[in-house]
Specification:
By secondary structure, the chain is an alpha/beta fold. Helices cover about 40% and strands about 15% of the residues.
Length: about 300
């Protein structure tokens, strides 16, 4: 099991560069950032763009993998997104992870002046977005005309550093999204019950994840894909579980999900006076020692 973190894009770079470097020094496998135009309680506070933030982070780190958690069709088009991802992968020396999801009904859904999409409309767009992004990151020239996205003789030269392409991790808990994961993904992301993440009692959360993993395995089998080839990523912070309250709480949490088959845990870098408030010293101890205590 690997341990990673999410660093929100809320810091001016004079401070942000220190945090991303510290994440590498603490030994995290990866550091992700949210790709939103703004986000919930942070809407009236500092919030920078994800892709420039990852570019800057690539320049001040050497080993840390970097990623979006997650980018979506809400305000992204696969063509310029692929260009930006290839550039970041090149700048980072091949350390980028493209986390992709369908998006939601938050500020991203209306910022460009449109009406929020229904869940089916989001799934329809994702079903076209992901295969086109896959091609753009894999092929030197792409032409594609779909219902929502067009690429007309788009050249992707030289592409990213990683081969065959930047890995795509899909945030997907429904059957259509899981099928996309089986067909195109190198990783799968969950944060629990997407219908009511804050309403699921902590003791029920492992059952929810176990059921999702079972569905993913079944869908992979139907697609001829070995689910063990996928990184299985759990983003902490959207359930009632509190693994950052103590070292014992974290070890219990990590052990429970390792046993279920989760291969990467992602915890939020502490943000004082927010839903992500946590003791910074304990957080750093968990980064250093938490997984080692699993044995």
């Amino acid at each position: 099991m690997r341990l990673s973190t999410v660093i929100l894009p809320i810091h001016r770079w004079t401070e942000g560069r220190k945090i991303w470097r510290q994440a590498e020094d603490l030994g995290f496998h990866a550091a992700y950032t949210y790709d939103h135009l703004s986000w919930r309680s942070f809407r009236d506070h500092t919030w920078f763009g994800a892709l420039p933030t990852l570019t800057a982070a690539a320049a001040v780190t050497e080993r840390l993998r970097l990623g979006t958690m997650v980018t979506s069709p809400n305000f992204r088009h696969p063509v310029p997104l692929a260009k930006d991802l290839a550039a970041i992968d090149d700048i980072s020396g091949g350390r980028l992870i493209a986390g992709v999801g369908a998006g939601g009904n938050g500020f991203d859904a209306t910022a460009l002046g449109g009406q929020p999409w229904t869940p089916k409309e989001r799934a329809d767009r994702l079903a076209e977005f992901v295969p086109l992004l896959d091609r753009l990151l894999s092929e030197p020239a792409v032409t594609s005309r779909g219902a929502y996205y067009t690429a007309e003789d788009v050249r992707m030269i030289p592409g990213g550093r990683q081969r065959p392409r930047v890995p795509i991790y899909l945030a997907a808990t429904g059957p259509r999204g899981m099928r996309l994961t089986a067909r195109h993904g190198q990783g799968w992301i969950t944060y629990g019950d997407t219908r009511d993440p804050k309403g699921v009692p902590a003791e029920v959360c492992p059952k929810v994840i176990a059921e999702q993993l079972a569905r993913l395995s079944d869908i992979c089998a139907s697609e001829g894909r070995n689910p063990e080839e996928l990184e299985r990523v759990l983003l902490q912070g959207s359930t009632l579980e509190r693994p950052l309250d103590s070292m014992d709480a974290f070890v219990d949490y990590a052990g429970r999900y390792r046993e279920l088959g989760i291969t990467e845990l992602v915890i939020h870098w502490p943000v004082p006076d927010s839903v992500f408030a946590a003791d910074q010293t304990l957080f750093e101890r968990i980064a250093h020692e938490g997984l080692r205590q699993l044995g």
